Predict the 3D structure of the following.
Amino acid sequence: MESLLVLAPVAVPAAAACLYAVLGWNRVTAWLGTLSAAGLLACAVALSAASSTASSAGSFTGSFTAGPGEAFGGLLFADALSAFMLIVIGVVALLAMAASPAYLAAELAAGHTDPHAMRRYGVLTQAFIAAMALAVLASGLGLLWVAIEATTIVTAFLVGHRRTRAATEAAWKYVVICSVGIALALLGIVMVHYAGTHAGVTSLDWAPLAEGASRLDPGVMRVAVMLLVLGFGTKAGLAPMHAWLPDAHSQAPAPVSALMSGVLLSVAFYAILRVKVIADVALGAGFARTLLIVVALASLTVAALLLLGQRDYKRLLAYSSIEHMGLLALGAAIGTSLALVAVLLHILGHGLGKSVLFLSAGRLHQTYGSSLIGAVRGLAGRAPLLAGTFALGLLALLGMPPFSLFASELGLARAGFAAGLGWPVAAALVLMLVIVAAVTRHTRRMLLGDGPGIRPGDGPDAGPMPPDGAGGAPADGPGAAAGGAVTLPRSLAVPLVAGLAACAVLGLTLGPLHSLLRAAAMIAGATP
Amino acid sequence: MTDALYVQALYLACGAFLLTGVLVLWRRELSAIVRLFTLQGVALTALVVVLGLWQGELELVLVGAGVGALRAGLLPYLMRRALVAGGAGRETQPLVNVATSLLVAAVLAMLAYAVSQPLIRLSPTPATQAVPVALTVLLIGFFVLVTRKRALSHVVGFLLMDNAITAAAFLTTSGVPLVVELGISLDVLLAVLVLQVLTTRMRAAFGGTDLDELRELHD
């Protein structure tokens, strides 16, 4: 039964992908993705209930033995940390998939897509979710690597879904940069394997690696950990290998951007968390900590600098993802129990908030035909509900109460000062202030400003060409938006409001998640 | 196989592996680059087979044959097909000229040698002492990726890196576990296929595969 539960999160979306391949995307099958995401979420909840009881029953030892089970010849396994990551995948996938029917219907109406492309969208999004589930359930470094590279491959065509010049460019950069980054991680895995075989650990599974970590050769492990952090950091959008992220996130269809930003980055970050557990034993806590602090501050700096002059609201959201990944890296560097609980909560909160924002931004893009900040004006008056979800989502991302990101950022700061990492945390707080100022300045005009927005292509100020203006065609379908009302279909409004509500509730109380978060933080190597 | 013969055969394979990597920097004809890449695949296969024969492991020899089929057979075939579809194939203006590139390769070799010191120290066998060769090719692949402008050159750069990592895996530990190796090969193959499809789309959208055209997205 338990082994079935470990297999199901991968099998359910994989089966849904097959169904899409056979049936195509139509009015009924459009909801299949939502169903499969709900199934994944249910499995995740069941798994975490099992792992929480396992830990509270005292079988928990701080290593990888706390999981409820293995499956599939030991290739898959689940402990509290993987169960928590599965919950994040399930929640964000549910939001993104529930919003997909409305999104694709609008794309179809505007002539941006066709039934063939929609079928492919169904297959690839489900394969994407299955690959992410596989990554967090992988019992070792090898399979984790394979799953993360698989996400690159299946999302390549999702990024290039619109087939415009800009989308093709983004897809190319995405595949090349991510494949190279992940190749570095592969070299790191080879080094770990090398160090392992000389320490009597022949498998790449987490459990034997963690047990034998103290025997691994430090010289080889230093090279390996650097490569692994750099490699998985590429996929997590951490500086200095973040260049693919703003392009890919701004060009992908909105639900895919939500999935990529909300969970794919965190899944790659999960790999770094797992690596850090082994690195801390093999090399002492200092090495990975220094590495992560450097990466975190670099990411925050990049995000702050590029947010200041940002003119495109989708890219604005993408840079905000880099900021939040930097915060996660900082939290992992601090490494205390409080910090890691905050990191995990931040992953969930960011997943919720960022998906709501990308889905709202997708609707904005569809109605205004441009993703320029200057093209959107006075949204609050025209579409109060859409403006509301966009504004509240931004407040959540900027770490305002009552949303859960406030709680997790507060936790990170407190943990950082308590652990004697005052300087990096203070620097991060200053950079975050800059980001808050920049984002507020840009989006205030979108929400409250008056007068018609700059039409795409107008004047020298219009900035880069709007992504969908391919082939010199005028931006399509935005005519209604310039003066009239902006509509928000009910099937899109429900996930948006639900996501915000969940994020707010998490900020007030963790409820049953609390014990799961603590157990997961212990597995991620929390020091007391 | 005697010790001396094993070491000589191994180093011959490694030498060929390195030489083909460096020569990629020298040639600007895309078809020549693909040919060099094929030769490198053959050298990599020889390397794995020599290791397998020396250790007397049939499995390793078979894995070597699989590596050869993928890296000296299938991948070059795919690239030749992309080349034929793409028409005229010459690296237009690499960012760094050939003479400088070769000098950079020498510097990269020294860097690789320095980085591999801790690896060699752990177990100084003839095989691990050849790891700097693999790392040099890795860095050369990265260099190709950064300085060349044709889409196909980028694919070759990525595949050089991948060959180098495979070589490093076999030189240090006779390869990663088989399941992982299979997954890796599949991923690499799919990545190349994806890049090939994107190249076709790029040609449709930009009228060529010069990556200098990729400048719409920036801040």
